[in-house]
Amino acid sequence: MFILESYGGAFFNSRMASAATSEEDLQNSIDKAAKKAQETQKQIDASQNVLQKTQVEISTTQQLINKTETDISRKEAEIKSLGNRIELNKKILSEYIKELYVDGVEDPFMQIALSGQGLNELAEQSDQLLSVKDKIIKILQEIDDSKNKVEQVKSELEDKKDEHEKILTVHKSEQVEIKEDIQQAEATLAELNAKINKLKGELSSLLGSNVSFDNVMEAADFASKATGVRKDFILGMLVVESGLGKFTGGCTADKSNMSKYRLGIFKDICSELKYDWKKKKVSCPPSSYKGTGGAMGVAQFMPDTWLGYKSIVSSLTGHKPPDPWNLTDGVVAMAKKLANGGASSKTKSGECKAAKLYLSGTTSSKYDWYCTRVAYWSKNYEDKLN
Question: Which of 51, 52, 76, 297 has the most CB atoms in a 10 Å sphere around its CB?
């Protein structure tokens, strides 16, 4: 947490303005890239679904074309068969006609009369020839009608095939476009993932180590049992104070603008813990108001504040000496300070009072916004676990 010079020993949280700006900027970039990557993946999934449907439509349309081609082939065979029947009946009719006009006599009835047959026989034979002729002509007409109908069906099938082929062309064009969109989206996703990994690497380098959320949950559970403060409230405070351990400091002590008094205490803490004080990271000075950095670990305790809790933290965690950069020690220190401020009552008013004391050392109503923020994250800290 930060201390405003005008408040002397009052506590001010790093989140009041913009603590560890470089850390937050990196994390914000990671969050934005991750959100964009998530949106891009959704686009890819949606495009894959559309592509799958398009491929089904292409397959269905191709099957319809194949079936239509088969039907056309059958109709062509049927037309050919009808054509053959027509030709056959034409030959039959031709033979009957030849019988009517034999030996070059133009009038077949005269030919029959000259044969010496009786009138009744002549009439009967003529009727038979004419009847056969009419039947053949009727058959030819029926076959021709059937052929015309089959040809009409074939024409309709060819039109339908043309329509299916046009639809198939459209679907294949859509398929190509969708595949190109997917390829572009996948390339974008790959770039975003590479960017995220790079940013995470920069953040890890800045923080010195990665914080396991499972370990954060375990530390909060331990601190809750040790101090009587609600676990969810502790986690809400951790989100606001250090992003569940992500923003523990991006500056070295010489860049923090902490006072000589605090710097001296800081050096002693580092010496006892065998840390190089020149390399150990603390919070950076705020950029939007006059004040100092120098807050340590997930709890963001200033060096002199840590001294006031060092003994109790050691008795609760068993760490001798306790370490403000140790996750469990830091969370227990936070929980103990909150308990001292009234959070152990587990009431809304008690937790609000404790949060404001943690932030500013006062219970002024002008810091109600901080209570609201912590209360929100106490219910929604899971969002920061992703």
Answer: 297
Note the pTM of the prediction, 2 decimals.
0.50
Integer Cα distance of 280 and 145 in angstroms: 100
What per-residue string of b and e applies to 361-382 under the rule 16 or more CB within 10 Å gives b? bebeeebeebbebbbebbeebe
Domain end, chosen from 173, 206, 239, is at 206
Domain of 350 in residue numbering reads as 209-385
Per-residue pLDDT tens listing for the chain (386 residues): 433 332 222 233 333 333 334 556 766 777 788 788 888 888 888 988 998 998 998 899 899 889 888 988 887 888 888 778 778 877 777 776 676 555 444 455 444 444 544 445 545 555 666 676 677 777 778 877 877 887 888 788 888 888 988 998 988 888 888 888 888 888 888 887 777 666 655 554 444 445 567 788 899 999 999 999 999 999 999 988 887 777 777 789 998 899 999 999 999 999 999 999 999 989 888 766 677 889 999 899 999 999 999 999 999 999 999 999 999 999 999 999 999 999 999 999 999 999 999 988 999 999 999 999 999 999 988 776 55
Pair 295, 183 in one domain:
no
Q: Are residues 160 and 216 in the same domain?
A: no
H-helix or E-strand spanning residue 110: helix 108-114
Residue 10 placed within a domain? no
Structure tokens at 344: 């152990």
Q: Give Cα 127 distance to the centre of its chain.
A: 87
Domain boundary among 172, 206, 240: 206
Residue 340: CATH number of its domain: 1.10.530
Q: Residue 182: which CATH number? A: 1.10.287
Q: Quick one: 202 and 213 in the same domain? A: no
